[in-house]
Amino acid sequence: MSKKILLLCGDFAEDYETMVPFQTLLAVGHQVDAVCPDKKAGEQIATAIHDFEGHQTYSEKPGHNFTLTADFDTVSADDYDALVIPGGRAPEYLRLNPKVIELVQAFNEQGKPIAAICHGVLILAAADIVKGRNVSCYPACAPDLQAAGGLYADIPIDAAYTDGNLITAPAWPAHPAWMAQFLKSLGTRIMFD
């Protein structure tokens, strides 16, 4: 059965962490609405590509323009089965928006699956929903997670971790594990002819 999923993104969200979940979820038959505060359906966000090239931190390069499919001002957790939060730089400022925080808290209060990757944990921490929960994220975000009372799941970069309704991962190399755990939480069944 198809599910309705909200993808919460913003300018300079990580490219792979925005596009891959969006396309994966569509490919298996789910409906995905991509939204950004202060933007409407048909408008675009700019994404950034984060890569791991042997430096002390990831490098950042221009990504693609990603077209939004719904208006942020009209969405409600009541209308969706799950939430996806990509990483990148967008969570740094999205967490400052009270409507973003209220939306994430509503998904959590309803026990709906929330998939967050990389810096997406900054929004979970700001929404005060990580206390006592095992959560993964990009390692540089671990202090923010821990300051919010979360328990840092220090897992390989290509792994994911599920704690109740929270499905989290360190970065885009974890897409296969992260999306597999998220699809399982949705009850998605993929059948081939």
Structural summary, described in words:
With 193 residues, this protein is α/β, with parallel strands linked by helices. The chain has a single domain, classed as Rossmann fold, CATH 3.40.50. The protein is 28% helix and 25% strand. The protein has 6 helices and 11 strands. The strands form 3 sheets. It has a 6-stranded mixed beta sheet with strand order 3-1-6-7-11-10, sandwiched between helices. Strands 2-4-5 form a 3-stranded mixed beta sheet, covered by helices on one side. Strands 8-9 form a two-stranded parallel ribbon. The protein is globular and about 40 Å long. It starts with a strand and ends in a 7-residue tail after the last helix. The mean pLDDT is 96.
Task: Provide keyphrases for this structure.
6 helices; six-stranded mixed beta sheet; 193 residues; 28% helix; 11 strands; alpha/beta; three-stranded mixed beta sheet; globular; single chain; Rossmann fold
The number of distinct structural domains comes to 1
Question: What's the CATH architecture name?
Answer: 3-Layer(aba) Sandwich
Output the strand order for the largest sheet.
Answer: 3-1-6-7-11-10
Sequence of secondary-structure elements: EEHEEEEHHEHEHEEEH
Helical residue percent band: 25-40%
The whole-angstrom Rg is: 15 Å
| Number of β-strand runs | 11
Percent range for β-strand residues = 15-25%
Task: Give me the oligomer status.
Answer: single chain
Spans of at least 5 consecutive residues with low confidence? none
Largest sheet: 6 strands, mixed
Which fold name is given in CATH as the topology?
Rossmann fold
Overall CATH class? Alpha Beta
